[in-house]
Amino acid sequence: MDFHVLLWKFDESSTAIRQFFVRKKRLASKSARKPEDRTLTVLNILPYCTEAALENLFTSFGKIDEVFFQNDLTSEDPPKTESDIFRWVDQPPLQVDKIAIVVFHSSKGLEKFLKFVSAKHDPQILSTEASRVKTGIAAWMDQKKRPLPSLVDLKREIDEYMEAYDTRQEAEQQKVKQNLGEPDEDGWVTVTRVGKKRGTRQEKVTSEAAESAVKKKNSEKELQDFYKFQVREGKVKQLTDLRRRFEEDKQKVAQMKASRKFKPY
Fold first, then answer.
1. How distant, in Å, are the alpha carbons of 44, 66, 125, 135, 261 from that of 15?
2. Is the domain of 75 the same as that of 124?
3. What is the pTM assigned to this prediction?
């Protein structure tokens, strides 16, 4: 798979040398977020390797535009958000064996790194004095102490989101108005009534096909009513026959009693 091995260790005092498996990104299709000439794929990512730690490690070879994680090599670009408060809302859950995508600012930075990793090299340092990586309980305590967003920042982000949402809704309503009265591929015409209040739009679909469906439904109802009439008439006739037979049986019993031939026991 043409992977190179990048040697690294956690900090200067570490004796354990670990490996990242890296290669230049090869894309089946073009990606604006992962340009092929500036993107590096990194495998064998440990849980405590954060985006900031990896950026600090690779920045010695050139400026880094972005570092983000994916679940596998074929994953699509994750949604990008500028929000620090809601940055994880649309992000897919990451697996333990995730991979990292490192995007250099220029192709020269990637070429410099590939030249370095192709030759014999000393282990790179992940956690430095300038960018300390916290692990275990220290990392959890740091997350616990991390302050919650202020109400001012939270309100600002929500207002910006709702403003963008209202803009999209207004654009959608304008598009509906423009397409008003134009039949689609199946001949259906969408008739739209927009209320005074936003969000009260009601839609009713009508066409020759719809009118035909209504006529067919009315015809079927009339036929069903005719069948109901037949059933009702049949029940009345059946009840009349039962009453007649009952009267005939009563007369036979009376005649047998009169002739003393009737023996009930």
1. 19, 30, 12, 17, 122
2. yes
3. 0.52
